[in-house]
Design brief:
Layout: E1 5-12, H1 15-24, E2 27-32, E3 40-48, E4 52-68, E5 71-85, E6 88-91, E7 97-99, E8 105-119, H2 121-132, H3 149-168, H4 174-191, H5 205-222, H6 229-236, H7 240-251, H8 255-272, H9 281-287, H10 293-304, H11 308-320
Antiparallel strand pairs: 1-3, 2-4, 3-4, 4-8, 5-6, 5-7, 5-8
Length: about 325
Protein backbone atom coordinates (compact mmCIF):
# COMPACT_ATOMS: atom_id res chain seq x y z
CA UNK A 1 0.00 0.00 0.00
CA UNK A 2 1.30 3.44 -0.89
CA UNK A 3 2.41 5.90 1.74
CA UNK A 4 0.80 8.90 -0.01
CA UNK A 5 -1.22 10.95 2.46
CA UNK A 6 -3.17 14.20 2.33
CA UNK A 7 -5.30 16.06 4.87
CA UNK A 8 -8.04 18.54 4.02
CA UNK A 9 -9.92 21.02 6.22
CA UNK A 10 -12.64 23.04 4.48
CA UNK A 11 -15.68 25.10 5.44
CA UNK A 12 -18.32 26.92 3.43
CA UNK A 13 -21.82 28.38 3.64
CA UNK A 14 -22.43 27.93 -0.09
CA UNK A 15 -24.14 24.70 -1.33
CA UNK A 16 -22.34 25.03 -4.68
CA UNK A 17 -18.97 25.08 -2.91
CA UNK A 18 -20.09 22.02 -0.95
CA UNK A 19 -20.69 20.31 -4.32
CA UNK A 20 -17.10 21.09 -5.27
CA UNK A 21 -15.73 19.73 -1.99
CA UNK A 22 -17.67 16.49 -2.48
CA UNK A 23 -16.40 16.30 -6.06
CA UNK A 24 -12.84 16.46 -4.69
CA UNK A 25 -13.71 13.32 -2.69
CA UNK A 26 -14.82 11.50 -5.85
CA UNK A 27 -18.50 12.38 -5.69
CA UNK A 28 -20.91 13.86 -8.20
CA UNK A 29 -23.49 15.68 -6.10
CA UNK A 30 -25.98 18.50 -6.05
CA UNK A 31 -26.45 19.93 -2.56
CA UNK A 32 -29.42 22.22 -2.06
CA UNK A 33 -30.63 24.39 0.80
CA UNK A 34 -33.26 27.10 0.95
CA UNK A 35 -32.02 30.66 1.56
CA UNK A 36 -32.07 31.45 5.26
CA UNK A 37 -32.06 27.77 6.25
CA UNK A 38 -28.74 28.22 8.08
CA UNK A 39 -26.75 25.98 5.75
CA UNK A 40 -23.07 25.35 6.54
CA UNK A 41 -20.69 22.64 5.41
CA UNK A 42 -17.45 21.64 7.12
CA UNK A 43 -15.23 18.66 6.28
CA UNK A 44 -12.08 17.22 7.80
CA UNK A 45 -10.75 14.49 5.51
CA UNK A 46 -7.63 12.30 5.42
CA UNK A 47 -6.79 10.36 2.28
CA UNK A 48 -4.19 7.90 1.09
CA UNK A 49 -3.93 5.70 -2.01
CA UNK A 50 -6.14 2.97 -0.51
CA UNK A 51 -8.99 4.72 1.30
CA UNK A 52 -10.23 7.90 2.89
CA UNK A 53 -11.86 8.97 6.17
CA UNK A 54 -13.93 12.13 6.45
CA UNK A 55 -15.87 13.81 9.23
CA UNK A 56 -18.66 16.17 8.15
CA UNK A 57 -20.60 18.79 10.11
CA UNK A 58 -23.50 20.18 8.05
CA UNK A 59 -25.76 22.80 9.57
CA UNK A 60 -29.27 23.85 8.67
CA UNK A 61 -31.83 22.08 6.50
CA UNK A 62 -30.46 20.64 3.27
CA UNK A 63 -30.82 17.85 0.75
CA UNK A 64 -28.51 16.22 -1.77
CA UNK A 65 -28.56 13.72 -4.62
CA UNK A 66 -25.88 12.04 -6.71
CA UNK A 67 -23.32 9.24 -6.43
CA UNK A 68 -19.73 8.45 -5.46
CA UNK A 69 -17.05 6.62 -7.43
CA UNK A 70 -16.04 4.66 -4.32
CA UNK A 71 -18.05 2.52 -1.96
CA UNK A 72 -18.93 4.89 0.88
CA UNK A 73 -20.09 3.94 4.37
CA UNK A 74 -21.91 6.84 6.00
CA UNK A 75 -22.25 6.80 9.79
CA UNK A 76 -24.43 9.63 11.09
CA UNK A 77 -23.48 10.63 14.64
CA UNK A 78 -25.85 13.54 15.16
CA UNK A 79 -28.89 15.35 13.79
CA UNK A 80 -31.65 14.26 11.43
CA UNK A 81 -30.64 12.31 8.31
CA UNK A 82 -32.91 10.26 6.02
CA UNK A 83 -31.70 8.59 2.83
CA UNK A 84 -33.07 6.84 -0.25
CA UNK A 85 -31.15 4.57 -2.64
CA UNK A 86 -32.91 2.99 -5.62
CA UNK A 87 -36.20 3.07 -3.73
CA UNK A 88 -34.70 1.62 -0.51
CA UNK A 89 -35.14 4.04 2.39
CA UNK A 90 -33.68 4.40 5.84
CA UNK A 91 -33.13 6.64 8.85
CA UNK A 92 -29.38 6.97 9.31
CA UNK A 93 -29.46 7.91 13.00
CA UNK A 94 -27.16 5.35 14.65
CA UNK A 95 -27.40 3.04 11.62
CA UNK A 96 -24.61 3.25 9.01
CA UNK A 97 -25.58 2.75 5.38
CA UNK A 98 -23.68 1.99 2.18
CA UNK A 99 -23.60 4.13 -0.97
CA UNK A 100 -22.61 1.96 -3.96
CA UNK A 101 -21.30 3.26 -7.29
CA UNK A 102 -23.98 3.27 -9.96
CA UNK A 103 -26.87 3.53 -7.50
CA UNK A 104 -29.02 6.65 -7.28
CA UNK A 105 -28.69 8.28 -3.87
CA UNK A 106 -30.64 11.07 -2.20
CA UNK A 107 -30.78 12.36 1.37
CA UNK A 108 -32.78 14.86 3.42
CA UNK A 109 -31.12 16.18 6.56
CA UNK A 110 -30.95 18.86 9.22
CA UNK A 111 -28.09 19.76 11.53
CA UNK A 112 -26.24 16.52 10.80
CA UNK A 113 -22.82 15.20 11.71
CA UNK A 114 -21.38 12.14 9.98
CA UNK A 115 -18.27 10.07 9.39
CA UNK A 116 -17.77 8.67 5.89
CA UNK A 117 -15.39 5.88 4.91
CA UNK A 118 -14.40 5.76 1.21
CA UNK A 119 -13.18 2.41 -0.15
CA UNK A 120 -12.28 1.69 -3.81
CA UNK A 121 -14.48 -1.22 -5.02
CA UNK A 122 -11.56 -3.03 -6.65
CA UNK A 123 -9.44 -3.00 -3.51
CA UNK A 124 -12.36 -4.15 -1.36
CA UNK A 125 -13.02 -6.97 -3.81
CA UNK A 126 -9.37 -8.03 -3.50
CA UNK A 127 -9.81 -8.29 0.27
CA UNK A 128 -13.01 -10.29 -0.21
CA UNK A 129 -11.26 -12.68 -2.60
CA UNK A 130 -8.42 -13.25 -0.14
CA UNK A 131 -10.90 -13.71 2.69
CA UNK A 132 -12.96 -16.28 0.82
CA UNK A 133 -10.15 -17.96 -1.10
CA UNK A 134 -12.11 -17.43 -4.32
CA UNK A 135 -10.00 -15.60 -6.90
CA UNK A 136 -13.00 -15.27 -9.22
CA UNK A 137 -15.35 -13.79 -6.64
CA UNK A 138 -17.44 -10.87 -7.92
CA UNK A 139 -18.31 -8.77 -4.89
CA UNK A 140 -21.89 -7.47 -4.98
CA UNK A 141 -23.65 -5.85 -2.02
CA UNK A 142 -27.34 -6.72 -1.86
CA UNK A 143 -28.50 -3.79 0.26
CA UNK A 144 -27.49 -0.39 1.55
CA UNK A 145 -28.45 -1.38 5.09
CA UNK A 146 -26.49 -3.46 7.58
CA UNK A 147 -27.49 -7.07 8.19
CA UNK A 148 -28.72 -6.48 11.76
CA UNK A 149 -28.70 -3.68 14.35
CA UNK A 150 -25.74 -5.41 15.97
CA UNK A 151 -23.82 -5.14 12.70
CA UNK A 152 -24.80 -1.46 12.55
CA UNK A 153 -23.27 -0.89 15.98
CA UNK A 154 -20.10 -2.72 14.93
CA UNK A 155 -19.73 -0.64 11.76
CA UNK A 156 -20.45 2.60 13.62
CA UNK A 157 -17.74 1.80 16.18
CA UNK A 158 -15.20 1.03 13.45
CA UNK A 159 -15.98 4.24 11.56
CA UNK A 160 -15.86 6.56 14.56
CA UNK A 161 -12.60 4.96 15.74
CA UNK A 162 -11.06 5.67 12.32
CA UNK A 163 -12.16 9.30 12.57
CA UNK A 164 -10.66 9.58 16.05
CA UNK A 165 -7.31 8.26 14.79
CA UNK A 166 -7.46 10.82 11.98
CA UNK A 167 -8.12 13.66 14.42
CA UNK A 168 -5.42 12.46 16.84
CA UNK A 169 -2.84 12.58 14.05
CA UNK A 170 -1.83 8.90 14.14
CA UNK A 171 -3.51 8.39 10.75
CA UNK A 172 -0.45 9.95 9.10
CA UNK A 173 1.62 6.83 9.84
CA UNK A 174 1.53 4.27 6.97
CA UNK A 175 1.35 1.20 9.24
CA UNK A 176 -1.65 2.66 11.09
CA UNK A 177 -3.42 3.41 7.81
CA UNK A 178 -2.74 -0.09 6.47
CA UNK A 179 -4.20 -1.63 9.62
CA UNK A 180 -7.22 0.67 9.45
CA UNK A 181 -7.81 -0.13 5.79
CA UNK A 182 -7.90 -3.84 6.58
CA UNK A 183 -10.10 -3.52 9.67
CA UNK A 184 -12.54 -1.18 7.91
CA UNK A 185 -12.69 -3.44 4.84
CA UNK A 186 -13.46 -6.45 7.03
CA UNK A 187 -16.07 -4.46 8.95
CA UNK A 188 -17.84 -3.56 5.68
CA UNK A 189 -17.70 -7.14 4.39
CA UNK A 190 -19.07 -8.46 7.67
CA UNK A 191 -21.71 -5.77 8.25
CA UNK A 192 -23.47 -5.48 4.88
CA UNK A 193 -25.14 -8.38 3.00
CA UNK A 194 -23.05 -9.59 0.06
CA UNK A 195 -23.69 -12.07 -2.75
CA UNK A 196 -20.80 -14.42 -2.09
CA UNK A 197 -20.44 -18.14 -1.48
CA UNK A 198 -17.06 -18.64 0.19
CA UNK A 199 -15.77 -22.22 0.07
CA UNK A 200 -12.90 -23.21 2.31
CA UNK A 201 -10.19 -25.38 0.79
CA UNK A 202 -8.85 -28.19 2.98
CA UNK A 203 -5.13 -28.42 3.70
CA UNK A 204 -3.05 -31.33 4.96
CA UNK A 205 -1.17 -30.97 8.25
CA UNK A 206 2.13 -30.66 6.36
CA UNK A 207 0.56 -28.13 4.03
CA UNK A 208 -0.64 -26.03 6.96
CA UNK A 209 2.86 -26.07 8.45
CA UNK A 210 4.42 -24.93 5.17
CA UNK A 211 1.87 -22.13 4.78
CA UNK A 212 2.51 -21.04 8.37
CA UNK A 213 6.29 -20.87 7.84
CA UNK A 214 5.79 -18.90 4.63
CA UNK A 215 3.52 -16.44 6.44
CA UNK A 216 5.97 -16.03 9.34
CA UNK A 217 8.81 -15.30 6.92
CA UNK A 218 6.68 -12.69 5.17
CA UNK A 219 5.81 -10.99 8.47
CA UNK A 220 9.40 -10.90 9.70
CA UNK A 221 10.66 -9.59 6.35
CA UNK A 222 8.03 -6.89 5.90
CA UNK A 223 6.75 -5.91 9.38
CA UNK A 224 8.22 -2.42 8.95
CA UNK A 225 6.04 -1.86 5.87
CA UNK A 226 2.27 -1.21 5.81
CA UNK A 227 1.28 -4.86 5.32
CA UNK A 228 -2.09 -6.21 6.44
CA UNK A 229 -3.40 -9.64 7.40
CA UNK A 230 -4.84 -9.91 3.89
CA UNK A 231 -1.31 -9.39 2.48
CA UNK A 232 0.01 -12.12 4.78
CA UNK A 233 -2.71 -14.54 3.69
CA UNK A 234 -2.00 -13.73 0.05
CA UNK A 235 1.72 -14.36 0.51
CA UNK A 236 0.99 -17.82 1.95
CA UNK A 237 -1.76 -18.68 -0.53
CA UNK A 238 -4.46 -19.28 2.08
CA UNK A 239 -7.74 -17.73 3.19
CA UNK A 240 -7.89 -15.57 6.31
CA UNK A 241 -9.65 -18.34 8.21
CA UNK A 242 -6.96 -20.88 7.25
CA UNK A 243 -4.24 -18.38 8.13
CA UNK A 244 -5.57 -17.76 11.62
CA UNK A 245 -6.13 -21.48 12.21
CA UNK A 246 -2.49 -22.13 11.32
CA UNK A 247 -1.24 -19.35 13.59
CA UNK A 248 -3.39 -20.45 16.53
CA UNK A 249 -2.07 -24.00 16.08
CA UNK A 250 1.61 -23.13 15.75
CA UNK A 251 2.02 -19.86 17.67
CA UNK A 252 -0.92 -19.61 20.05
CA UNK A 253 -2.18 -16.37 18.54
CA UNK A 254 -3.74 -15.02 15.35
CA UNK A 255 -1.78 -13.72 12.38
CA UNK A 256 -2.59 -10.15 13.47
CA UNK A 257 -1.41 -10.98 16.98
CA UNK A 258 1.87 -12.37 15.62
CA UNK A 259 2.39 -9.28 13.46
CA UNK A 260 1.83 -7.09 16.52
CA UNK A 261 4.37 -9.15 18.48
CA UNK A 262 7.00 -8.56 15.81
CA UNK A 263 6.23 -4.85 15.62
CA UNK A 264 6.19 -4.57 19.42
CA UNK A 265 9.66 -6.12 19.48
CA UNK A 266 10.83 -3.58 16.91
CA UNK A 267 9.31 -0.73 18.94
CA UNK A 268 11.10 -2.10 22.02
CA UNK A 269 14.43 -2.07 20.16
CA UNK A 270 13.82 1.51 19.03
CA UNK A 271 12.91 2.58 22.54
CA UNK A 272 16.12 1.21 24.02
CA UNK A 273 18.22 3.48 21.82
CA UNK A 274 15.91 6.51 21.83
CA UNK A 275 16.78 9.87 23.30
CA UNK A 276 14.33 10.36 26.20
CA UNK A 277 14.41 14.13 25.80
CA UNK A 278 13.14 14.04 22.23
CA UNK A 279 11.11 10.82 22.03
CA UNK A 280 7.34 11.07 21.70
CA UNK A 281 5.91 7.70 22.78
CA UNK A 282 2.65 8.26 20.91
CA UNK A 283 4.59 8.89 17.71
CA UNK A 284 6.90 5.92 18.24
CA UNK A 285 3.95 3.60 18.87
CA UNK A 286 2.08 4.85 15.80
CA UNK A 287 5.20 4.47 13.65
CA UNK A 288 5.04 0.75 14.44
CA UNK A 289 1.32 0.48 13.78
CA UNK A 290 -0.15 1.13 17.26
CA UNK A 291 -2.53 4.10 17.01
CA UNK A 292 -3.68 3.80 20.63
CA UNK A 293 -0.96 4.62 23.19
CA UNK A 294 -2.85 2.98 26.07
CA UNK A 295 -3.15 -0.29 24.16
CA UNK A 296 0.51 -0.11 23.15
CA UNK A 297 1.53 0.48 26.77
CA UNK A 298 -0.52 -2.48 28.02
CA UNK A 299 0.97 -4.76 25.37
CA UNK A 300 4.48 -3.49 26.09
CA UNK A 301 4.14 -4.05 29.82
CA UNK A 302 2.75 -7.55 29.27
CA UNK A 303 5.70 -8.42 27.01
CA UNK A 304 8.55 -6.71 28.87
CA UNK A 305 7.36 -6.37 32.45
CA UNK A 306 7.51 -2.58 32.59
CA UNK A 307 5.58 0.20 30.84
CA UNK A 308 7.37 1.97 27.99
CA UNK A 309 7.66 5.16 30.06
CA UNK A 310 9.84 3.31 32.56
CA UNK A 311 11.92 1.81 29.75
CA UNK A 312 12.42 5.28 28.33
CA UNK A 313 13.41 6.56 31.78
CA UNK A 314 15.94 3.71 31.95
CA UNK A 315 17.34 4.91 28.66
CA UNK A 316 17.76 8.34 30.25
CA UNK A 317 19.68 6.84 33.16
CA UNK A 318 21.87 4.78 30.84
CA UNK A 319 22.64 7.87 28.80
CA UNK A 320 24.15 9.75 31.77
CA UNK A 321 26.06 6.83 33.28
CA UNK A 322 29.83 6.96 32.61
Amino acid sequence: MAADFTRQHSHTFDPAEADALLAAAGGRFAVASEPGAGFSFAVDQATDAAFSVARYAIGGKWEASGEFEDLVVVSVTGGDYRWEIDGERGDAAGSPFLIRPGHDFACYAEGSEAVSIFLPPGMLQDVARTTSGDEDLNLVFESAQTITPRHAEFMLTASTAAAEYMEAGTFRHPLVRASLFHSLSMAVLQSFPVSTDPRERTLTTAGKRRKFRRAVTFIEDYASLPITVADIAGSAGVTLAQLNTAFRTHSGTTAQGYLQRVRLSAAHADLLVSDPASTDLTDLAARWGFPDLDRFSRGYRSAYGVPPTVELGGARSDAVDP
